[in-house]
Design brief:
By secondary structure, the protein is of the alpha+beta class. Helix content is 17%, strand content 32%. It has 2 domains: 3-51 and 128-332, Naphthalene 1,2-dioxygenase Alpha Subunit, Chain A, domain 1 (Alpha-Beta Complex); 56-108. The chain has 5 helices and 16 strands. It starts with 35 loop residues before the first strand and ends with a strand.
Amino acid sequence: MAADDATSACRSGAPDNSSEAVVTLAQAPVAGDAPLASLPERPASPRFGAPLQAWYPVAREAEARRGVRTRLHGRTIVLRRNEAGAIVAPHQPDLLVVVRAGLVWARQVNGSGQVVPPLIEDSIGGGDLPMIACSEVEVETDYDQAVLGLVDPAHVPMVHDAWWWRASPKRRVKTKQYAPSPFGFTATAADAFASAPAYALTGASRRIAIEFRLPSTRIERVEAEGFRLVNLTTVTPTAPGSVTLRNAIYCSVTPMRALHPFLSALGRAFLEQDARILRRLESRPAPGHPLLFVGAPDQPSLWYYQCKAALSRASDDAPFANPVRATVLQWRT
């Protein structure tokens, strides 16, 4: 299988007949110098599934203020505004709830001392960078497969065909610099090529950085002269075998708030393309096959599992040790 075609389909369990060595995740180098790595069939392991004590968005702030029922890890959560005006989850003392970026985030607590990745620090959702779109899609799928869609850099031409995102089917070589960042990694473009026509609106001086942070948060930051945009995408484990894909966009061009319904509809259509692929993957399980990661396009997916394993080992006495090392990756997209 060619490295430039290594996408989510490679990880669905198709057997590999190449002569290159297959190594387990524990043996895989962190910098991506081996072209092929393999994960064993999913055992009971901290590497698989959603971390229970991490922060996940569970609702929009506006709907929570009106009162809403939602789910996290299979439990039902009722959110409402108390007399002081704060959003709370009554009668659930083991659940922490905070509002950040116009979303309500929740996490379970049990006092185990496990390290918890922090929430997004960006000052977004307010007057300077208001939310201009928010979209959600429920999908029955494997949690890890959904999160891999956030880090897989080569899945765009395979999954997304929106006219405003993918103008031409022609593929080109793309180069990005990757570096470790808190509880994950960040990619920045090492060339001037941007595959999405929407980026052209920001001008040639744009700077784009895409951060992935455990457990399942993708933060894309776009900056240009007089312009800022943050594109936040998350995966929330609502129940075993079910997740919510959520996307929220924040922009310094405040008049764009008037386009919230239209932009949210576009975002939902975008998420539905991901959901369609996830449903297809879930409907064709290959339990006897290992998960394979091939070449540069799959290196971020391998990092994801390595970071999860490192998080499971971290505690108050042993800080998170990021396994990611700075490197440059290339693929066709």
